[in-house]
Structures are given as structure tokens and as C-alpha cells.
Amino acid sequence: MSTSSSEDGDSEACESFQPEDAEEAVPTDSASPDSETLKKKRGRKNAISAPLAAALDSEKISFRSGVKVVFRCAENFNVDTAEMNVNKSSMHRVRTKCREEKAQKIKDDFMKKLTPNTRLIVHFDGKRMKLSGGNFEERLPVVVTSTGLKEQILGSPVLPDGTGTQQADAVVAFLEEWGLSGIVEGGCSDTTAANTGNYNENGNSTLGNRRG
């Protein structure tokens, strides 16, 4: 679960990471004078910093396209690309590591603000989101709020369906993962049957109370 790819505090660099498996550098345009060199000898200089990883994420640039952007920018500034570790594998691993570190920092910062008297309200609202390909997926944003604290999103997982059972499982799982189950004193949602269980006992709120 990834909580955020926020750009706040992105000046903190991720630890240098060098993948062990060799992967052919890209782009491999035969017209590029360095293509054959990059194929034969992979560079070791980490070219992806935390701010750069956050920028690529915020612009929704894929791993493969990100490699091309970094590679061409380096060429434009006359940087020796033969010394750079620029390939899809390293791009994927470094950006994933940066996301995980940023998510953990957000979680740690929020937990430090809690006091023995803190009480939380958990908010959840399932949404059916349309994807770029025309398909749909069920998402469930889960947020907690408290007096004197900035609201904190715990996650927005993809659910197999929008039933109360699936939603209750997701809400309880996030509260347990963050260690917040014992300080939640209420929930907030709309009044659909999936949440309240108007005609049965399978509503999100009913199941959440039972499992919490």
C-alpha cells in the first residue's frame, strides 16, 4: 500500500541503489552513438534522486518512458551516459524504494502527533472509478480525522467489489496496520445499504463494529 507520492520533503535523497541483475540500457536506438557501448558495459552511477523520482511520479511517467527522459536529458547536458545506471530495472527499483520511504515517513510523522487522549473518526466512501482503458474499478478511500490534527488518508485500495463485507475488511485492515483500532470512536459514511446494512447485517458499519 502506498499512502502518498507527495513532493513535500522530497529533498531527502533515497539510499543509493544498484541492481545486481544486468539489463540492457534503453533507449537502444541504433542511431545513437552510445547505444552499443551501453549494451556492453552498464554504468554504476545512480542517476535517480528522490526529487526526480517524485517529479516522474507526479507527471505519471512510466518506468520505461522515465528512462528515456533521464537518458536524453543527460545527453543534452553533455553528461557521460556510459557511467550512468540508466535502465528500466534500476528506474523501477529506485522509484519504488523512494515511494516506500516517503510513505513510511508520512506514517511516522502522523503517529508522532498522536497523544494518549487522541480519539479518531474514520471516514470511508466507496467510489467506482473509470480507468483510461474504459474499464471500471472499485476504490475505497479511508481517512481519519481528529480535533487539532490534519486529516490523514490511510489508503485507497482497489476492491474486488463494492459490498459491505469487502469495505469493512479494508477499513479494519488499515486501522490495524496503522495501529489505530483502539482510538477510533466513530465512523462517517453515506447511508447506502452497503454501509449501513439497511436490509441485512452485512453493512460496512455493522461488520466494522463487530470486527473492531
Structural class: alpha/beta
Give the helices and strands as they follow along the chain. Answer: HEHHEHEEEEEEHEHH
How many distinct domains? 2
| Share in β-strands | 15-25%
What value does the Rg take, in angstroms? 22 Å
The largest sheet, given as strand count, sense and whether it forms a barrel, is: 4 strands, mixed
Count of β-strands: 9
Helicity range of the residues?
A: 25-40%
Instruction: Give the rounded overall mean pLDDT.
Output: 77
Mass-distribution shape: elongated
Secondary structure tally, helices: 7
Cross-sheet strand order for the largest sheet: 7-6-3-9
In angstroms, what separates the terminal alpha carbons? 21 Å
**Uncertain stretches of 5 or more adjacent residues:** 4-13, 15-33
Descriptive notes:
The chain is α/β, with parallel strands linked by helices. It has two domains: 107 residues, no CATH class; 99 residues. The protein contains seven helices and nine strands. The strands form three sheets. It has a four-stranded mixed sheet with strand order 7-6-3-9. Strand 4 and strand 5 form a beta hairpin. The longest helix has 25 residues. The protein is elongated, with a radius of gyration of 22 Å. About 14% of the residues have low confidence.
